[in-house]
Amino acid sequence: MSQEEVRSAEQLNEEADIAADYLEALLDVVDYDGDIELGIRNNRPVVQIVADDDHDIKNLIGTNGEVVDALQQLTRLAVQQKTGERSHLILDVDGFLKRKRKHLTDMALDAIDEVRENGEAVDLKPMNSFERKVVHDVVREEGFKSRSHGEEPKRYVTVYAKAGSIDAADEDVDGEELSAEQG
Questions:
Q1: Bridge partners for 37 per DSSP
Q2: Contacts of 164 (CB under 8 A, 6+ apart)
C-alpha cells in the first residue's frame, strides 16, 4: 500500500479483526487474561490489549516497550499473511503508547523551552521513527522547527528556533519532507 492509498473502513476493520484473532490466540497460549479493543485512527487499525492484572500485562510491554513493538510487528505480519497487503496497524498494550506519547511530548516541550532560553539548537537522544514523529508533530505545533539526523538505530531529532530564512528545517536531512509515516 502506498502512502497515498486509502483503505476502506471495511478493509481496516478486517485487519483489526485478523489482528484481534491472532492476539487472542497468543493470550491463550501464554495464559494471560485480557480484553481486546478495536478501532480506527488516522486511517489505521488500532488494537488495544487491556487487562485487570497489571503483572501479566506488563510482560507484554517489556522494558522500554520492546515486547509491544515486537508484538506489533508479528501482528502486522499475521495480518499481511491473511490479506496479502502490508498493514500499518497500531498495537497498544495497557495504555503504553498514550504514556509514551505524553513522555515524548514533555521531552519535546522541554527542548523547545531550552531553545527559547538560549537560542541554540537542541539535540535529543536517538529515537525510533514513531518517537521522532511524535516529537516532530509537537515541535511543529509549537511553531518551532525540527529535523532528523543520523542513521538507524542512532537517528535523532534536533529542535531549532523558527528562522524565517531557513525553510529547509521542515525537511529531513535526506531532503524528504516529513510525512505522517516518517520521523
A1: 48
A2: none
